[in-house]
Design a protein that fits this description.
Layout: H1 6-17, H2 29-35, E1 42-46, H3 52-59, E2 63-68, H4 71-84, E3 89-92, E4 105-111, H5 117-129, E5 131-142, H6 146-149, H7 163-169, E6 174-183, E7 193-201
Parallel strand pairs: 1-2, 1-4, 2-3, 4-5
Antiparallel strand pairs: 5-7, 6-7
Length: 206
């Protein structure tokens, strides 16, 4: 996950060095479910954090670029990739200001990038533009409904979103799947988290 501004970068470096130092290295269940049937190609994991999803993709034959603005998270990602015996290109950059190559990726993943609406729109516009014809965009994040019906995640409504928000912000991609999904939370007795999921495709053939 990444959030813009130098102050946020430093805060996330502290979080990755502290409370998230032993975060799970298992990939997102939603990434696995939505991507497993796709033929491997070139993938971009935007706001890749400590690399769990990028490394899973690389292990399954994808050529992956992982982008995050936290140097601490990327150090963890490099270590995970080395331990898993895969190669990933890691780029330290802000998901809002970094512009990926246009229509260069068969798969672009944006998982749990929680930003204020104006910054999210910019990041998702860049992400959508990076999808090549026939390629897929997968966006997953904490849904606005999670505040009242879910568990965990950000407590600031301005960084949460809905599937409709994402649909409105990904340009001319064709939406294949959109909705709220439930995710089990490890804490005993906690309610499931409520996430927003959108999978879209750029028309045409690669």
């Amino acid at each position: 996950m990444a959030i813009s501004s130098q102050a946020s970068r430093e805060r996330w470096n502290r979080r990755w060095a502290g409370e998230r130092a032993h975060a799970s290295t298992a990939p997102s269940e939603f990434l696995v479910a939505e991507v497993a049937a796709l033929p491997p190609g070139i993938a971009l994991d935007l706001a890749c954090g400590a690399g769990r999803n990028a490394v899973w993709l690389a292990r399954h034959g994808w050529r992956v670029t992982g982008v995050d603005f936290s140097s601490t998270a990327l150090a963890m990602a490099r270590d995970l990739a080395a331990r898993q015996g895969v190669a990933v290109e890691w780029i330290e950059a802000d998901a809002v200001t970094w512009i990926p190559p246009r229509q260069a990726f068969d798969l672009v993943c944006v998982l749990y990038l929680q930003l204020p609406a104006d910054e999210r729109r910019t990041a998702l516009a860049h992400a959508a533009a990076a999808v090549r014809p026939g390629g897929t965009l997968l966006v997953v994040g904490h849904d606005l409904l999670n505040l009242t019906e879910g568990s965990g995640g950000p407590t600031q409504a301005d960084v949460l979103f809905t599937p409709d928000d994402v649909i409105a912000e990904i340009g001319d991609l064709e939406v294949e799947k959109a909705g709220r999904v439930r995710r089990a939370v490890a804490e005993s007795g906690a309610r499931d988290a409520v996430d927003a999921l959108v999978r879209a495709r750029r028309p045409g053939r690669a």
